[in-house]
Amino acid sequence: MSKGMENICAKWLKDGMCGVLPSYGEYGANGSAIIFEDGSSIEHKRKVRSVIIELAGLFQKDIVLLRKQSNDVLSQKTMTPLSIAPGIIVVPFKMRKPIGKDDGTAGYVFESHVDGIEEAREGSILRLKCGRRLAVMEGARTATRHMDNAMRLRNNTVHYGAKNDQAATSWLKLREEYEQPATRGDIAIVHRSLMSIMEKLKL
What we know:
The chain is about 45% helix and about 25% strand. The chain has 5 helices and 9 strands, in the order H-E-E-E-H-H-E-E-E-E-E-E-H-H.
């Protein structure tokens, strides 16, 4: 993950990012629309999948492992939500008919920002807490199932995540301590230990 993209993702989250939708830009380029909790959105040149990978990377998470975790919990291999960080579970919904073969159909919406799902003549409507309404190319029953899966994933990973976040924090602190320059006291302790070993070995 580039430092520049890391800063961009961090800024988006600070600004209230709540979704990443597939979007054909001004000149037809396959990119993303980043949705914010105030209802606004911006266009970005990266594809949805790339943005989600970068977002996961901001929390030192690997997208392959996140998918495996979700697959294991839900016993489902496609259209599964991803638990990126505490409070950030992104839920996939089919949002468009792609023009190109590999353009992708799914967008991701933060579970915590979904207010409800409504039936529509074609597909369904996803209501966000900001008041924005997103057209989904899946029926209300299927869209609701995606949200149910997100809840199951959240409930399953809340303790697991807290345990591992604590372990990760402890590891980072330990690594920081070991990366600090050695003090005279540290050197003296090592010297005494070496002398003791030499005496025992009669060197």
